[in-house]
Amino acid sequence: MNVIVNVILAVQMLAALVMIGLILIQHGKGADMGAAFGSGSSGSLFGASGSANFLSRSTGVLAAVFFVSTLALAYFGNARPASSGSVLEAPAAVAPAAATPDAAVAPAVPASGAAQIPTK
Fold first, then answer.
1. Which of 89, 85, 25, 79 minimizes the C-alpha distance to 55?
2. Could you give the angle at which helices 2-25 and 50-78 cross, rounded to 10 degrees?
3. What is the pTM of this model?
4. CA dihedral 72, 75, 77, 78 (to 10 degrees)
5. Is the pLDDT of residue 74 over 90?
6. Contact, 39 vs 32, CB < 8 A?
7. What rounded mean pLDDT belongs to the chain?
8. What is the spatial distance between Cα 35 and Cα 4, in angstroms, rounded to a whole number?
9. Domain map of the chain by residue range?
10. How many whole angstroms separate alpha carbon 85 and alpha carbon 108?
11. Among the four 58, 64, 99, 106, which has the fewest Cβ within 10 Å?
12. Do 10 and 65 meet the contact criterion of CB atoms below 8 Å apart?
């Protein structure tokens, strides 16, 4: 179970990093307007309009992989035995008593919180 969670976590991190890179590579909507007036070149490695389709589709696929891995991690993170109960229902942990001679004379802790308020 732990190996599966680690593999899904690695896939999620790789998808996130590659998706960030692909988003940074893409041109904005105003980039075509600048190329129409002569600033910059509109051609690229994928052709004039091929890069938008390739980068958009690969970003969409990586986003889907990221969301599926997030849902899988949430499912495995919440998968607990049904008999575990709530953390609030568990008894409080008791600290071990110090082995000092004054331990027998230590004052008892008051039962309510109102008795702990100092008075003048």
1. 25
2. 150
3. 0.53
4. 170
5. yes
6. no
7. 76
8. 47
9. 1-19+47-80
10. 31
11. 99
12. no
